[in-house]
Specification:
Layout (H helix, E strand, L loop, with lengths): L14 H6 L8 E5 L6 E5 L14 E3 L2 E3 L1 H10 L2
Antiparallel strand pairs: 1-2, 3-4
The chain binds zinc ion (ZN).
The site of zinc ion has 8 residues, from helix 2.
Length: 79
């Protein structure tokens, strides 16, 4: 799919890709250069549990994102 870069350097991500990759307004993404300087990739940042990688029910404990199960295990371990 061909897209154009506007005069401010912006690119509109086609709707089909926004839907497919769940890219909503204010979604954070990491833009990385591809090998051999052929372009860039855009990777959606998904908050995950720092311990197990779970995406749901995250809360910060001492500034570390943890899922409910890991918070429960940590709480038990600290008793
Ligand atoms: Zn976890």
């Amino acid at each position: 799919m061909i897209v154009k870069i506007d005069s401010a350097g912006r690119v509109v991500i086609p709707k089909i890709y926004r839907q497919k990759f769940n890219l909503k307004p204010n979604t954070e993404a990491n833009m990385l250069p591809l090998p051999d300087d052929i372009g860039v990739s855009l990777l959606r940042l998904v908050p995950r549990c720092a311990n197990c990688g779970e995406e749901k029910g995250l809360e910060k404990v001492e500034n570390i994102s943890l899922c409910p199960n890991c918070r429960r295990v940590l709480k038990y371990a600290l008793k």
